[in-house]
Every structure is written in structure tokens, then in C-alpha cells.
Amino acid sequence: MNSIKWFKNPEMIVALSALLLGLVTAFTSIYSAYIDREYS
């Protein structure tokens, strides 16, 4: 078997980074929509 850890695999690092970035973007857009509704 491959002895490299799953979190040290470059593809997993890229995938987890993309997932984190997507979650931050979704939270930011939802929060921005909430602020816009409160303002208007």
C-alpha cells in the first residue's frame, strides 16, 4: 500500500482548499444579502 498520509496527498490539499474557499464564499454572499436586506 501507499504509505503517504491522506492529508499529505497534494490532490487532497487542493480539494480541501477548494472546499474551504467555497464555504467561505457561500457564507460571505449569504451575509452580504442579509446586510443588504437589513439596510433597505
Can you lay out the helices and strands and say which pair or pack?
Layout: H1 10-39
Q: Can you describe this structure in just a few lines?
A:
By secondary structure, the protein is mainly α. It is about 75% helix and about 0% strand.
> For the report, how would you describe the main beta sheet?
none
Gyration radius, rounded: 17 Å
Average pLDDT over all residues = 90
Give the CA-based shape. rod-shaped
Tally of helical segments = 1
Helix fraction, binned, reads over 70%
Number of strands: 0
Beta strand %: under 5%
- N-C termini distance: 59 Å
Classification by helices and strands: mainly alpha
Listing every helix as H and every strand as E from the N terminus to the C terminus, the arrangement reads: H
